[in-house]
Design goal:
By secondary structure, the protein is an alpha/beta fold. Helices cover 30% and strands 20% of the residues. α5 packs parallel to α6 and α6 packs across α7.
Length: 457
């Protein structure tokens, strides 16, 4: 049968590669099933090309951070060649730069191949009520939010100030004074202005209501029977239950200071939301040698393992404050066991909690001797040493830290609708966490508060 297609046998023969001419069945094109496949494939290619050419045009955008890796803080995979667009003080777009058309009048932040991520939280700090301190010691180092875990009643109002003549300060969130029993911790150790002393369930309920009225962002309770040879009184289970129930009724989380695992059951029974520090068996502070096997590995007591698993089951977050509890000041003053053994035991417990599915948030206990302000890099490095991946460390310093500070609805991740707090790093912290200490740009509430240009002035 002769070929009736537009290309004749002579044309085909003259091609570099000889291909047989398929019968066209009189339609002037490739026929049969192969032809159908060909046309469908061509159509898909055409549609893909059209889709790739269509980019979303950003409307009413004031600031765009682009040309960098976006780590959004949710734990999702990083976005290469990412973009974060801001209108006013809210995030309006997050994604790949190629998916968006940027308005000509938008202010651009060029990440220059660096990393764009949410502003960092320090979820456990002290002595940071004043805006000047929060600006100079935290915001200008990339920490856009800091949470104070013990503040006297008169100083609670200081957290309302977030702007100075010099510019914005880091956001400040607070617990107010710690709910405790008369003469209980932290009074004997940090001063009684840090105490909100209660006796009985009624006073416990009233304390929470009072702190809520004064603007507390979360509630802190002390479960500390003493250390360093001192013994202190403590609130009881019923009082703690009253604190938790009243806080939850007012949509506040309860964060419990627990250094002795003997008290973890009480905290979990009452329903606290966050445990601060790393609960360890009381005898760990005095004699740890017997708790290590012949290979030199710490054997976590079965009761402590069960407590950690119960924390995970109840969704309780751990803020280990490793910078403080493995620091020289704590080890020299309160640990009679060999410091290296105690540190190894603490790391083993944190690793077990993490590997079992526990949620960890970053807070370094700034204000404790030897713990520095600014980017909590040492805390991050210690968490990485305890088993967290760099991406998990960033999530702990953003999403999870925002949660324990009661701010997850507005802060902690780069998501549409959230407040525009972000930083741009010169480097990739997924490759080297030290990049967290190389901040190029800082944006707080949609405003650029630090840039290479401003730093050069």
């Amino acid at each position: 049968m002769p070929c009736h297609c537009r290309h004749g046998a002579e044309e085909i023969a003259n091609r570099r590669v000889i291909v047989p001419c398929r019968p066209c069945n009189g339609y002037g094109g490739i026929g049969g099933p192969a032809g159908l496949v060909f046309y469908l494939a061509a159509l898909l290619v055409l549609l893909a090309a059209c889709g790739a050419a269509e980019r979303e045009e950003l409307q009413s955008v004031s600031l765009v951070a682009t040309n960098g890796i976006v780590i959004d803080g949710t734990g999702a995979n990083p976005i290469t060649d990412g973009l974060v667009a801001i209108h006013g003080n809210r995030i309006v777009a997050v994604g790949q730069s190629s998916d968006f058309k940027i308005p000509d009048d938008a202010v651009l932040i060029d990440a220059a191949g660096g990393t764009i991520l949410p502003g960092v939280f320090n979820a456990h700090a002290h002595y940071v009520p004043y805006a000047e301190k929060r600006r100079e010691l935290f915001l200008l180092d990339g920490v856009t939010s800091v949470c104070d875990l013990a503040t006297s009643l008169p100083l609670m109002k200081e957290f309302e100030q977030e702007e100075l003549g010099a510019g914005l300060a880091a956001r400040g969130f607070k617990a107010g004074p710690i709910i405790t029993t008369p003469r209980g911790y932290p009074g004997p150790f940090h001063g009684f202005a840090m105490n909100y002393e209660i006796q009985g369930v009624d006073e416990a309920e009233n304390a929470v209501r009072d702190l809520h009225t004064r603007g507390a962002d979360f509630i802190k309770v002390a479960l500390e029977p003493g250390f360093g040879g001192y013994t202190w009184p403590m609130i009881n289970l019923e009082e703690l239950r009253s604190v938790v129930a009243t806080a939850h009724a007012n949509e506040l989380l309860v964060r419990a200071h627990v250094t002795k695992s003997d008290l973890s059951d009480m905290a979990l029974e009452a329903g606290v939301d966050v445990i601060e520090h790393v609960p360890m068996p009381s005898d760990s502070y005095e004699n740890l040698e017997t708790m290590f096997d012949d290979a030199g590995n710490y054997r976590i007591p079965s009761r402590l393992e069960a407590q950690m698993l119960r924390m995970i089951e109840q969704g309780v977050v751990l803020v280990p404050t490793l910078d403080a509890v493995t620091g020289d000041s704590f080890l020299w003053n309160y640990v009679e066991s060999e410091p290296e053994l105690f540190t190894q035991a603490v790391f083993t417990v944190v690793r077990f909690f993490h590997d079992s599915g526990g949620i960890i948030a970053v807070g370094n206990d700034y204000g404790y001797p030897g713990v520095h302000p600014g980017m909590p890099l040492r805390e991050m490095e210690l968490l990485q040493a305890a088993g967290l991946s760099p991406l998990e460390v960033i999530e702990a310093a953003t999403k999870h830290a925002a949660y324990v500070c009661g701010q997850s609805a507005e802060l902690g991740t780069l998501e549409i609708g959230k407040l525009a707090d972000l930083i741009v790093l010169d480097g990739n912290p997924l490759v080297d966490l030290n990049a967290m200490d190389s901040v190029l740009y800082i944006v707080k509430d949609g405003e650029v508060v630090y840039s290479p240009q401003q730093n050069a002035k």
